[in-house]
Amino acid sequence: MKHLKVGSRESRLAVIQAKLAMDAIRELDPEIELELVAMKTTGDKILDRTLDKIGGKGLFVRELDAALLNGMVDFTVHSCKDLPMDLDPRLPLAGFSKRADPRDALVLPNGVYELDPAKPIGCASARRAVQLKKLFPGQPVAPVRGNVQTRLQKLDDGQYAALVLAAAGLVRLGLEDRITRYFSTDEMLPAAGQGILAVQARTGESASYLSAFFDQDSADCALAERAFVRRLGGGCSSPTAAYATVQGETLTLRGMDVTAKGAPVFDTILGPRSQGEALGIELAERILQKRTEDA
Ligand SMILES: NCc1[nH]cc(CCC(=O)O)c1CC(=O)O
Fold it and tell me: Porphobilinogen deaminase N-terminal domain: from which residue to which, for each copy (predicted)?
């Protein structure tokens, strides 16, 4: 009987996500034995600094990559948006899930029904901070770190007027009822990969066990979004945003980056879905051009 060890971060959201992938594998082949190996990453241990100050997204995957390479696990499950743009070539992405809700959402403190203008909106990324300025002019914005439950605790303790969190994470945690308002993807362009789960495996090994998990629309969108962000410099500290959709054979990719003065620059490109990476690169080059013109 086939036995696979599944690597995941140990946060509640990460474990729920790993189990979603495991369910999809069992659906295809109930005979496969799956074992979850949850581990703490450097990014989970350092909670008092924003990510860009401590080294960015890689901090959430280093330990998981090592476990894949030394055979402690056979594949790892990640939030696609937490993955660095440049992966270890020995550990390619082997599958992308169907995309959950890609939108960001506003969450108010328990028992509070409007924004307190004196307190900041807590958000963990420059991407959200830049877009919040336009949505709530004058409202202060401050960083917040920690897993989703920790952030909600800080909110309910009265430290923030509201939080902006990914709807997908809240829904997976069963916390959908905390959402006060959804931002459309035009109001707040999502992070590359938001709402998609990605599986990483060792190169050269068959990942056929993933066929019930794999979603071609997500794969095409994620590749285009990630190519865009990669071409702009990988940006863990840059506020880069990217969101793609597919309709028939056409992929539409909208992207954002900011000028040196901090002003957001948006653009959209359409093309064949089979050319997602090239579209991502072309859109990034257009945005780089606009960024210099506006500088
Ligand atoms: N950086 C944390 C993270 N990574 C993925 C999600 C949400 C789930 C997803 O995008 O698939 C979250 C929480 C959040 O941003 O609110």
Answer: 4-206
Superfamily of domain 215-294: Porphobilinogen deaminase, C-terminal domain (3.30.160.40)
Task: Kindly state which CATH superfamily the domain 104-182 is placed in.
Answer: Periplasmic binding protein-like II (3.40.190.10)
What single DSSP character describes residue 274?
A: G
Angle, to 10 degrees, between the axis of helix 216-231 and the axis of helix 276-293?
30
Query: Which positions are catalytic?
Result: 82
Q: Is 148 in the pocket of ligand 1 (CB under 6 A)?
A: yes
Centre of ligand 1 to C-alpha 182, Å, is 15
Q: Model pTM?
A: 0.93
The C-alpha angle 226, 130, 284, rounded to 5 degrees, equals 30
Question: Any idea how long the chain is?
Answer: 295
What is this model's ipTM? 0.94
Question: 136 CA distance to ligand 1 centroid (A)?
Answer: 22
17 lines ligand 1 (CB under 6 A): no
